[in-house]
Amino acid sequence: MGEVFTSRLAGFHKKPLADRLGAIARVTHLSAAEMDDLRGDQGLTVEFANQMIENAVGVFSLSLGLGLNMQVNGRDYLVPMAVEEPSVIAAVTFAAKIVRESGGFVAEADDPIMIGQVQVTNFGDPTVATKALVSHKEQLLAVANSFHPSMVARGGGARDIEVRVLPAPEGARGEPLLVVHLLIDTQEAMGANLINTMCEGIAPLVESLTGGKVFLRILSNLADRRLARATCRIPVTALADFDMSGESIAEGIVQASRFAQADPYRAATHNKGVMNGIDSMAIATGQDWRAIEAGAHAFACRDGQYRPLSTWTLEEAHLVGRIELPLALGIVGGPIKIHPQVQAALKMLRVTSARELSMVMAAVGLAQNFAAVRALGSVGIQKGHMALHARCVAVTAGARGQWVEKVADALVTAGHVKVEKAREILASMMRDEPSPVTGT
Q1: CATH code at 12-110+226-380
Q2: Is the pTM of this model over 0.90?
Q3: Is pLDDT at 43 greater than 80 in this prediction?
Q4: Which residues does 285 contact at the CB level (< 8 Å), separation at least 6?
Q5: CATH architecture of 113-219
């Protein structure tokens, strides 16, 4: 039998970079060329970039790391994450380990139904216009699907229409808004281009049926028909740390959750923590992370007040975390097939569908949030942040190789994580030990 795949790679962060890369190559079966892409030896070239965007002048890099210990629905995942902040990957890895030991995350996701919007004006009586559109639903769907027969052949395509009449933003003196929602199953794609094509395709028929004028024809990034959910259940006794009882830490986490539910000022920062993990994973896997952000925050205020995407409660001596948010993802199309590092990241992740990807991403968001509220409700966020930030400060001060960890440790011990202090420490260390073993 072959080696059993696991995301539990003990001591991974302590290994030299070359050893980490070697371990990943073995467990994910990346080819030599894919490893070159992962290391950045090849990756996205300026020539590729020039084909992807306008006015290209170069390539911008982010650090790519792996969130470890992730287990969702009983399956292990190595989570690729592209991010500049040093605490993000460490936090999700730590949180996933605690959840893993408590049974892992349980997640689910809706079918990939997206919404395309067609705005109609000058339509006359909204009741008459609505009736005309609804009574010709099958014709509208047939026209929409004629623009993407291959998607229909794969089981996707336009599924339904809805007609909405919205009050005029100007008040009673203005014309109400008539909006046709085209509900489309995008299968394994995020679907922006095909949705926009279908919306533009049905516009002439919409105008003919209503006698009105169509203006906007575009997808909505509030993908609330395409939600992903994840939960975890952790025994309170497993939370004990920092010389604090599990009950005390659990209470801090629950109080942090209550704060976010009551106050949009706190909820914004709470959700930023969720999106730390989701955005990092989205960037690494070639997703439209701006669309994900827009949809998540719109969903967070769906009841009229901005709310947290995740909540934490105490239930039968367990801390229970829940998250729900729209995640419009794809594993085909766009930059996914062009960007070599995205391809390597997806191979490491081993997902086989957009729905599976969204379930893992929801779990990552919940893990990231757990790590944050656990620190906030106990010793505070700065202790962990400063320890990780110290490494960046050490590098900024000129430390390289083995000096980075030495200087970072000294900064944390001194309780003064500043570049000037790092330079003093580095100079002192180099005087005392002038010939270190250098490395990467």
Answers
A1: 3.90.770.10
A2: no
A3: no
A4: 80, 329, 336, 342, 345, 346, 349, 357
A5: 2-Layer Sandwich (3.30)
